[in-house]
Write a structure and sequence with these properties.
15 helices, 2 domains, Spore Coat Polysaccharide Biosynthesis Protein SpsA, Chain A, 9 strands, 388 residues
């Protein structure tokens, strides 16, 4: 495999990144990307057995004017070669880059970020679809995203299921333990919806975002400055930032994908780790977003009070209750917006998250359900200001 000619924007972006590319396949060139309405972005590592099926599913679903950017990084197998063979006869704009991040600089979030940055540089007006090389997009995904984009949503979070053949081979899990986690997650989301209702997402909705299936507009991607790159959980970090910037987010069951549910995943802190813990550990850690009922109420009520406060003095009182350090507290109270609230959550010791284990969920679930049921019976039966 040789190196194909690169466009100036792509060359500059790769030169500025800690990514050493060995092979680039650009199909018929870069000019056609400018006309794309949507570009699928896939980071891949050691997916030689799955990448061809992922590409074939995209080929069946994408429109003729849509594009694909596939970044294979740090592979110890023939992911790039299998991808190239699967792209034979591909008639859409495509960019396939194979290479390695410099030691100590690579991660799954950074690979996804680079793929999306490249796609945005090539197709500045196109929406970006994030998916994975172990994932199969399902029929109707493209039209569902097109509909939501036409409705004016900035970030659309599609539905994610498991590939049935792989799910059938998973070691069995404890059905009662699964029920507790599921009930705790859904009840927490319902409580959040009742305290901070979202007109764009009437309850119930799936309330989830995953790198295997979301789309973001070009304008939104520019506003946020590109995909966040925490150690893990770039998808949730993206959603949080979009929400803080008051962008319109839609949780939809329309665009659907099926993804691998193997236990030997590629991204630390991802789905595979969660599936493995739930099957191999007696009392596993659970989703980091799940928290005790009292902490959940404090967070949600404080957020509502901060964002709806009549003025600076009310926000100062709330920040004092949350023990936010004095330095910069005036600036946060003056701003009073979603970005300021993000900083409040990071600075407040009262809002610091403590990772729960399954036994914690079992202990807290009755109280959580009582809060949920009370709110169902009387939506006004709660304090809107936790500092009151």
């Amino acid at each position: 495999m040789g190196m194909a000619p690169l466009g100036n924007d792509v060359e500059a972006m790769l030169a500025q990144s800690p990514f050493d590319s060995r092979f680039v396949h650009a199909g018929s060139g870069f000019a056609e990307f400018a006309e794309c309405g949507l570009v699928a972005c896939i980071p891949a590592r050691d997916e030689e057995s799955r990448v061809a099926a992922s590409i074939a599913a995209l080929d069946r679903e994408l429109g003729q004017s849509d594009g694909l950017v596939l970044l294979t990084n740090g592979c110890r197998d023939d992911t790039a070669g299998n991808a190239l063979r699967a792209l034979a006869g591909w008639r859409r704009p495509v960019l396939l880059i194979d290479g390695d991040f410099e030691p100590g600089t690579g991660s799954a979030p950074r690979a996804r970020r680079l793929a999306m940055d490249l796609a945005h540089a090539l197709a500045p007006q196109a929406a970006l679809l994030s998916t994975d090389a172990d994932t199969l997009v399902q029929p109707g995904l493209r039209s569902a995203y097109e509909g939501h984009l036409a409705e004016g949503f900035d970030l659309i979070c599609g539905a994610i299921g498991f590939i049935e053949a792989e799910a059938a081979c998973l070691p069995p899990s404890d059905p009662d333990a699964d029920r507790v986690v599921r009930e705790y997650r859904v009840s927490s989301r319902e409580i959040a919806e009742r305290i901070l209702p979202d007109a764009d997402n009437p309850w119930p909705h799936h309330g989830n975002i995953g790198g295997a299936n979301f789309a973001i507009t070009s304008r939104a991607y520019e506003r946020i400055g590109g995909l966040p790159t925490p150690v893990s959980g770039e998808d949730r970090a993206l959603r949080r930032l979009c929400a803080a910037m008051e962008m319109r987010i839609r949780y939809s069951d329309g665009p659907q994908v099926l993804t691998s549910c193997r236990l030997d995943g590629r991204a630390p802190g991802g789905l595979s780790d969660e599936l493995k813990r739930s099957r191999e550990e007696v009392d596993p850690l659970v989703d980091e977003l799940l928290e005790p009922p009292a902490a959940l109420l404090t967070r949600l009520q404080a957020q509502k009070a901060f964002l709806s406060a009549a003025g600076r003095s009310e926000r100062l009182r709330l920040l004092a209750f949350l023990d936010v350090p004095g330095e910069g507290i005036g600036r946060l109270a003056e701003a009073g917006d979603g970005l300021a609230w993000m900083q409040v959550e990071e600075l407040s010791p009262r809002l610091a998250r403590r990772r729960l284990r399954h036994s914690d969920l079992v202990r807290h679930l009755p109280d959580l359900l009582r809060i949920r049921d009370r709110m169902r019976e009387d939506p006004a039966d709660r304090r809107d200001d936790p500092a009151a």
